[in-house]
Amino acid sequence: MSTGKKEPSPPVETLPQAEGTTASPRSVEPAQSQDALDAMLAQAIASRGAAVPADDSASSLPPVGEQRCGLIAIVGKPNVGKSTLLNALVGQKVSITSRKAQTTRHRITGMRTRAATQFVFVDTPGFQTRHGNALNRSLNRTVVGAVNDVDLIVFVVEAGQFNLADAKVLALLPEKTPAILLANKFDLIHRRAEIAPWLRAMQERHNFSEFVPMSANNAKDVERLFGICEKYLPVQPWMYGADELTDRSDRFMAAEIIREKLFRLTGDELPYTSTVVIEKYEEEGNLRRIAATIIVERDGHKGMIIGEKGEKLKRIGTEARHELETLTGGKVFLEIWVKVRSGWADDEARVKTFGYE
Ligand SMILES: Nc1nc2c(ncn2[C@@H]2O[C@H](COP(=O)(O)OP(=O)(O)OP(=O)(O)O)[C@@H](O)[C@H]2O)c(=O)[nH]1
Description:
Layout: H1 34-46, E1 68-75, H2 82-90, E2 108-114, E3 117-123, H3 134-147, E4 152-158, H4 164-170, E5 179-184, H5 195-205, E6 210-213, H6 219-230, H7 250-265, E7 275-284, E8 287-296, H8 299-306, H9 311-328, E9 331-340, H10 348-353
Parallel strand pairs: 1-3, 1-4, 4-5, 5-6, 8-9
Antiparallel strand pairs: 2-3, 7-8
């Protein structure tokens, strides 16, 4: 994990690193033999540079009897790349990302409609195993809720690794739902030969339907993932319009974008227990007037966010405003305040007031 926050020292299987290139995903049915795994890896590497099928967004509505639609939950421990994957699949940022763990705190739905198929992806917070506070209990409830009643689960791990935090998420997966093992950050794996034993070990951990080594930040890999997921989605009418990308409002996105800038522009010394509340969101034609409060737990944290002569807070505001202007296609006036609410993350009522499940 790239975060400074360490998981409890679990047994980690890590592959040594050397020179390498990006591979494309190829899924495999869970194979029993070394040969099958080797063949899959060879295929993944050979398919580098293969043509990407054109995005075939639905321009005319297919008849209801031909529409395919299903829910796909994206789950995994913190920081494995779930939100990066969701954004790549949707083709637009709908879930914020940062190198800090616990960036995603809500169930975020992102849709993509291609030809007759509507993919409804559900991004989830990374399952928390470290602190048992009210905030983390809420995040974990969100994960548990999301893995039930979906058509497919995409279980994301970092390729070549599996530790206690991964195992805790894996234990939540219902046996009845098909699950794909997505070995992400494959670009960081340089000795590919050594991934085969890891994949074999993963086969024994769960009855995965397929194994997909890939990189969420590689467009060709993401493209192929659609084909892999499609066959698990039932023939049924679409749930959303063909052009819809998320079920979240612009107001919600405003809070998330500010929190993303906060997470990205502050160092690891700022505890993860800070959140953003939108106090005002007004639309006047093409103009949005937004007032937001960043909530922190201690006075000392407030100083970290405001920075010397207010520089840090100013930068958070400027970067958030630019992104909100791109998102809304209009002008944005953004005011941000910082307030201390000590102990909020351990107070169930406050956690709810601040918009968590
Ligand atoms: N090298 C590499 N980095 C990646 C890849 N996918 C994601 N990342 C990086 O991994 C970090 C975490 O990504 P996120 O998408 O925020 O991870 P997450 O699983 O949603 O994290 P939580 O919100 O904590 O649950 C970011 O710095 C990403 O840029 C990948 O395929 N390769």
